[in-house]
Amino acid sequence: MIPDLFTAAIKPSALSWRTVLLHGLQALHAADPNYLQTLASDDFLPTQGRVFAAFDQPLEEVRYVLVGEGPYPREASATGVCFMDGAVNELWSAQGLSKPVNRATSLRNFMKMLMVADGLLAPENTGGESVTVVSAQAMSAGSGFIQTLPDLQRNLTDRGFLLLNAALVFRRQVPPVKEAKAWRPLLATVLEALADRPGLSPPTLVLWGRIAQWLEDLHVVSRLPLSTAEHPYNLSFIQNQAMQGLFGPMHLLRSKDALRT
């Protein structure tokens, strides 16, 4: 039996996802009947019933599925949406990126990759002084830059991103690899629903990091356009040309109003 904790967590999701997520939980339970019961009696992140928070993006609006490895290992940071650190608000500071962004290594490298992709930083010069110049431009009146992490999340969802993790929960005593393995049946169900949408093209699957890339073994992945990269906590992610090519045309650091002008 699936604990009420998890069926209740489905309810805030977009209506188009609710049956899919229930089927995904059933598939997870069939693969490991003890997993959800054990999880329900344990402490895990994210809290506040946000395990399926990413699914407020309606199924029919998904154009990209971005998969990271797992939630941030801090309660304030784990939001149920990959790479969106709940402890971060402001993106910029007089010294460059804000202190909370700099502390969130993956987010910092993602931001720097976006700056390179948008032509704001030279690929060979992404250090502090160069970022400070961009930050000053971003914080100037009428710059057209987004200012907060919720702005960045909004830009991603507006462009059709479903922001997932390979493991939907984090527990300190459970290796992320083991946690991610348990959630594979649910993620397979999600990807199958996206591949099978009548009249809609399948979304591009973007896998960041080794744990996320294990999803490539799922049969449904052969039906989806695929793009992979190292996890953004690696410094080399900033220079990843495939990611620059994917994200560059989106201009995610610019506000919607700025892009209209």
What are the key terms here?
single chain; alpha/beta; four-stranded parallel beta sheet; two-stranded antiparallel ribbon; 6 strands
Would you write up a description of this structure?
This protein has helices spanning 4-10, 15-31, 35-40, 99-103, 105-117, 128-139, 149-158, 176-195, 210-213, 241-247, 256-260; strands at residues 64-68, 92-93, 96-97, 161-165, 204-208, 226-229. It has one domain (1-261): Uracil-DNA Glycosylase, subunit E (3-Layer(aba) Sandwich). It is an alpha/beta fold. Helix 2 (15-31) crosses helix 8 (176-195) and helix 5 (105-117) packs across helix 10. A hairpin with a 2-residue loop joins strand 2 and strand 3. The protein is globular and about 55 Å long. The chain contains eleven helices and six strands.
Q: Helix and strand layout, with pairings?
A:
Elements: H1 4-10, H2 15-31, H3 35-40, E1 64-68, E2 92-93, E3 96-97, H4 99-103, H5 105-117, H6 128-139, H7 149-158, E4 161-165, H8 176-195, E5 204-208, H9 210-213, E6 226-229, H10 241-247, H11 256-260
Parallel strand pairs: 1-4, 1-5, 5-6
Antiparallel strand pairs: 2-3
Helix pairs in contact: 2-8, 5-10
What's the gist of this structure?
Helices cover 41% and strands 9% of the residues. With 261 residues, it is α/β, with parallel strands linked by helices. The chain has one domain: Uracil-DNA glycosylase-like domain (Uracil-DNA Glycosylase, subunit E, 3-Layer(aba) Sandwich), CATH 3.40.470.10.
